[in-house]
UniProtKB/TrEMBL annotation:
Ranges of residues in domain F-box: 1-55
Lineage top rank: taxon: Eukaryota
Pfam families: F-box, FBD, LRR_At5g56370
CDD domains: F-box_AtFBL13-like (cd22160)
Protein name per its UniProtKB record: F-box domain-containing protein
InterPro entries xrefs: F-box-like_dom_sf (IPR036047), F-box_AtFBL13-like (IPR053781), F-box_dom (IPR001810), FBD (IPR006566), FBL13/AtMIF1-like (IPR050232), LRR_dom_sf (IPR032675), LRR_FXL15/At3g58940/PEG3-like (IPR055411)
Amino acid sequence: MDRISCLPDSILCEILSYLQTKEAVTTSILSRRWRHVWKDLQVIDLDDKPFWKSCDDEEWHARFDSSVNAILSKRNADSYAIKKFRLTCFQNSDESMSTRYLDAVIGDRLQELYLNLNLNNIDVYGDAITLPEGIFTCPSLKSLVLKGYITLFDAPMVSNVYLPSLKNLELQVRFVDIHKLLSGCPAIQNLNIDLRDFRFRIPKLQMPPTLKSLTFSEPGYYYGATEEISVREIYTPSLEYLNLSINNLEDYAMQVSVMHFPNMVEAHLSIDECDDNVDWVLLLFQALRETKFLVLKEFTTMCIFRAPGFEFVEFHCLLNLEVDVKCFDKSFLLNYLHNFHVLERLVINIWPPDDAEYYELTPATMVPNCVTSHLKSFEYTGYQDFEDEREFIAYVLQSGLVLRTVTIHLKSDFDLETKNNIVGGLAAIPRGSSMCQLNFIDQIPV
């Protein structure tokens, strides 16, 4: 007998739990020792993809349903209750079939539930699968992930939500009464809400004060949207991670209210807002002034850097900054760097330009303190060899007294001779740091 087969069943089940359950079941044919091991699994991962064949829907549903029923009926459910259940159905799932599986696994020991479901014959407003009531009163549930054509909107059981152990909640669905759901989660710490497929505008949404991590995506248009203001309140004093994506393409009125985040570690911002509605964006920057890691996507830079009278926020703790820009402006970036006092890593990503321009600023007359005394790593993606770019690279190389690495990603459409000339010219620039290594990378075409 091999060494793995000599391991106790508990360890073998731990190994099998990293496989999809259909694959774990096939280990039963290895030998008599393995015949019944999978039946003790407390982690069930069901995916319809292996059943996708060139057969009609009726045959496909029958094959998948038969396989799942066999797995759930033959396992040792009395001795080994399911702790983690994952169901993924992309190829048109059936509501009665899905709810039947859920009724079989919901119990007092269920800790993690992941559902990603598609549904037959979806119309533009989206019919959806209604989940069993037991999901929303499961005392041991710690993580709940719901994606696809799932509804929690009109179901009466939503009013009875109470998930006292829930720490992680991820929602990417079409219908959900978010207020009722969040009100029954007193201990939630990680919240991920993606409203890009949502079918109704939510006038007001208040994030739970217990959050430590928040990922929130808001579209620019809802079915039946009105001119009323959409309010998003983020009063979460313990928040450590924020990933905010708001694309207000239709220019409907939005107000995001925030507080100071003293424990913030990392923030990612992708905000596409109209020029006359950026006040809340500036307040958000003030609230994030203690963060250590800040990522500004291209729409965010265009949003705030075009605003007349924009006042730079002082970041006294920021160590890592990643900025996407659509039109490079040396003066703007140097002025901006004066506000990052201890910055150690800077990444600038150049995106295809458009007609927008930044608010005109007076050229910086002093070298930013972070460049001379703290900056250790500088990375520039999308280098096109414009004069402003060359001057900025030279500025950083000469002024960076503690620089260790400078990495430049050359735009992909340079011919070999042009690329060699660019590399030779930049490599010849004197460097303020004797430790600085200059690296060049060919950018992969997009």
